[in-house]
Amino acid sequence: MDPIIAALARAAGLDKALADFPDDVKAAAEQALNNAGVVQVPIDPAAEPWPPMRAGIGL
Helix 22-35 and helix 3-11: axis angle, to 10°? Predict the structure, then answer.
């Protein structure tokens, strides 16, 4: 496994998943890396893709 993927998994607290299911962790990391270019970064940094989540709003 790529040492960078392993280091990122450990940094994310996925030590047990990395030990028990290394192939799954690798597949998930590869899928995330392959789809990273699809994520659209908002032009306005203050823009949110959905309304802010506050208790009592919309109830």
Answer: 100
- Residues of the domain holding 26: 3-38
Residues 5 and 29 sit within 8 Å (Cβ to Cβ)? yes
pTM: 0.63
What are the angstrom distances between the C-alpha of 51 and each of 47, 48, 55? 9, 7, 12
pLDDT at position 10 over 80: yes
Name the domain count of the chain.
1
Report whether pLDDT(41) > 80: no
In a domain, 7, yes or no: yes
